[in-house]
Structure formats: C-alpha cells, structure tokens
Specification:
disordered C terminus, 62% helix, 12 helices, two-stranded antiparallel sheet, 6 strands, two-stranded antiparallel ribbon, mainly alpha
C-alpha cells in the first residue's frame, strides 16, 4: 500500500482536490438550509443566493459549474500529459460550453411533450428560467460535433480528445445530478423497503421526502453509477488494456446501460423535471440505447476497421516537461 501511494502520490493529490472541492460545495448546499422544509414537495431551497430581488443563483447552476470546472481541471492536466497546448483547451471551452448549453436546450424543446412556447424568449428559456428545460443528451451530442471539427482544425487526434472528454462528461454528470437533488426533481417511485429508507443518509432521506412519502433517489443511483465508471476508466486508461478511442466507447456503453435500462425506467412521470416522452417511451431511453449501440460499434467495429492501428492510450502520453510537443 505504501508503495502504491508513493508511486501515485501526484494522482492521489489531484483526485483528492477534485473530491474535496465537490464535497465542500455539497456541504455548503446542505448547511446553508433552514430547519423548515422549503415546501411539502421539496425539502431544500433550490436558490443558493440572491444578487437582487429579480436575480438569483440556483444550486443547480452551482453544481453544473462545479462539475464543468473540475472536468476542465482534469482535462488541463491530461492535455499536459498528451503534450498538447493547454491554451487550446480554454479556447475550446469558450466555444464548446455555450454551444453545449444551446444544444441541451434545443434537445429539450424539440422533444418537449407539453410544448407551450409563446415567444423566442420561451424557446431559449429566459422568461421562465429554463433550469429544468435542459437535457444532458443534447449537450453530449453538441460537444461531440464541436470536438470533431475542432480537432480537424487543430490537427489533433479526435479519439484521444474524445477519451479525455469522456472523463469530463462523467465528472460533470456526477456533480450535476446533485443539482437535481437540490431542485427536488427527477425522483423515482415511493420506496417500499424500510431498510432502504433507513440506509439513506439523513440529508438525502430528507430531500427524498416528497408529499409525505420517501422516493427513490434516482439522482444518487445515476451519480453512483457514473462514479463507478469514472474510477474504472481512470485506472484503465493508464493500463495497456484499451487503445485510443476505447475509453469513449466504454463511456457510451456504460452511460447508455445505466441511463436507458436503470435510471430512466425508475423515474416518476409527472414529477418536476419529468423526462420527455415519444411513442409512450421516454426519449432519453431511446437515445441512451443509441449511445449504447454507438459505443459498442466504436469498440467492436472500430477496432477491426477504423481504429485498428490506434496505440494504447498510455503509450501516447509524453513527459510533462515536453509540453510543446504536439501529438498528431
């Protein structure tokens, strides 16, 4: 154990910082709440703080930005290991983040089961906040499209950057789901097992008390599912287990299974943040299955045809001091 810690001291410190920042934000979100439930259907106040009587910052936004910042921090470190210009990362984020927000909103608007858009402001979500009118699937699709063209322009490996992007997505999704928790949304059916109710930490149990009944914390299930994937992929990409592009394929498979087969079927229809429905089935289930299939194609067919000559991811890493060396 001591040898392991010695050989991985820098990585342990880095991921310790990431975990510490996330836990600190979660701690603030919980301890700043009052002793009285926000409402009968929502225990926590979704507002973090107010700038004025008409402008407020929501905890959902805080957790999303926390996940984005932590994902960017890990990507910055990975850019150095790949020998890429770290300035390019920030240039890409300036464009990719706003585009992903637009893509996330458009996805929601397109598949909204109860559209009621009276103006352009309604479409872009200004008039009513639009906080619950976003979808991670739209953000993922938009980010992939942007990365494809951006890597072509910069003459970088799309698949190597996609592997880094997969880690960032997982970090963002893990953090963002706690924003849903603070919003009191995207919960599951009533918990029938008293053992499970008692097993939940008190602050989560309180948040899942909706109209007098404890609900399944689907946000926690998805966050934990993604955390397991994050730990595995962080270890796997430093081993000669998978080649460039495989990490992204594995992420799509893992996320597709978890979201499409486990999380979405558990969600309660009619709840705040209710998933969109097409042909009687949540559209997120359809797309999650598509992502699962794409991940499988990337792993199976990609290895045989397009990605067959790709090196192991760990073999394209360079010494940190060689930061000006660009891998094509």
């Amino acid at each position: 154990m001591n040898e392991f810690i010695k050989n991985n001291k820098r990585s342990i410190k880095k991921y310790g910082i990431v975990l510490g920042i996330f836990l600190f934000v979660l701690f603030l979100a919980i301890v700043t709440q009052g002793n009285v439930p926000y409402s009968s259907s929502q225990y926590y106040d979704p507002t973090a703080f107010r700038i004025s009587s008409s402008i407020a910052i929501q905890w959902y936004a805080v957790f999303i930005l926390t996940g984005l910042s932590l994902g960017a921090y890990l990507a910055y470190d990975e850019f150095k290991k790949l020998g890429w210009n770290t300035d390019w990362l920030f240039d890409a984020l300036i464009i990719a983040v706003p585009l992903s927000i637009v893509g996330s909103r458009l996805y929601y608007v397109i598949f909204d089961p109860t559209p009621n858009y009276q103006s352009f402001a309604d479409v872009i979500g200004i008039s009513n906040g639009g906080i619950s009118g976003l979808s991670i699937h739209g953000a993922v699709i938009t980010a992939f499209i942007f990365v494809f063209f951006w890597t072509k322009k910069k003459k970088l490996s799309f698949w190597a950057l996609a592997d880094t992007l997969a880690i960032g997505f997982l970090v963002g999704q893990i953090s963002g789901r706690w924003g849903n928790f603070m919003n009191g949304e995207l919960y599951g059916p009533v918990i029938q097992s008293q053992w499970l109710i008692d097993a939940l930490p008190a602050f989560i149990r309180n948040g899942m008390l909706i109209d007098g009944m404890y609900r399944h914390p689907t946000f926690l299930y998805e966050s934990t599912w993604n955390l397991a994937a994050l730990i595995f992929l962080l270890i796997a990409r430093r081993k000669r287990w998978f080649k460039v592009g495989d990490v992204m394929g594995l992420y799509l498979i893992w996320y597709g299974i978890g979201r499409g087969a486990i999380i979405e079927p558990l969600r309660t229809q009619g709840a705040p943040g209710d998933p969109l429905v097409v042909f009687g089935v949540y559209v997120n289930i359809w797309l999650s299955l598509v992502l699962f299939a794409l991940g499988g194609l990337a792993i199976i067919l990609g290895k045989k045809y397009y990605l067959k000559d790709q090196p192991f991811y760990v073999d394209i890493l360079v010494q940190e001091e060689a930061e000006d060396h660009v891998i094509r």
